Amino acid sequence: MDKARHVSFTLIPSLVANLASAAKALVLTSAIILSTGMFAPEAQAKDLSNRLGIGFKNQSSVELPGVAVQYWPGAELGLSAALGLDTQTNNSKFSAMLKLYRVIFPEDNLNFYLGAGAGILSIEAGGANESGFELLGFAGVELFLAGLENVGFSFEMGTAITSISSGTRFRTMGDSPVRAGITFYF
Predict the structure, then answer these.
(1) Mind listing the pLDDT tens digit for each residue in 142-186?
(2) From CA 18, how far away is CA 47, in angstroms rounded?
(3) Domains of the chain
(4) What would the pLDDT profile of 3-59 be if each residue is shown by its tens digit?
(5) Quick one: which H or E segment has residue 5?
(6) Contact 22, 160 (CB under 8 A)
(7) Facing residues of 113 across strands?
(8) What is the radius of gyration, based on Cα positions, of the chain?
């Protein structure tokens, strides 16, 4: 019995240390990914400079589509905010996410980008509420079809750390064509 107690007491501090170093690694990786695009060669792409877009995205671990606002202050740097809400009795969900994008490989009707995001989550299941945060590091594309120059279809893949009251998890994420984000730019 003492041996089992010793194993559990030595395991918990190492798990906490690994979690802290994993969070630092995600932040460092996201910073490196965003900075690598600063040296990308010039090319013609879909210029979204000073464009505001409104649409939807479904990229948090809560599986909740959200209304998104996206703004590109320049041709290579973009920001977005997404808000998702479901008030179903005993199964409500809430997600708010902020994201930063950096175009690193532009094409004629497509922008390939890297980014990072952070958000807050709240999930109610069976009357118990769990809340926490989520951190993302991702790569993605925004595609503009000929004839629909103001509508962007976005797909993203990457990694995330989700920490809610019941625990912390590391996950990979990815969008399929069915889950594509859609943004209309003004």
Answers:
(1) 999 988 889 999 999 999 999 988 889 999 988 777 778 899 999
(2) 41
(3) 2-185 (2.40.160.20)
(4) 444 444 444 454 445 455 555 655 555 555 555 444 444 444 578 899 999 999 887
(5) helix 2-36
(6) no
(7) 103, 140
(8) 19
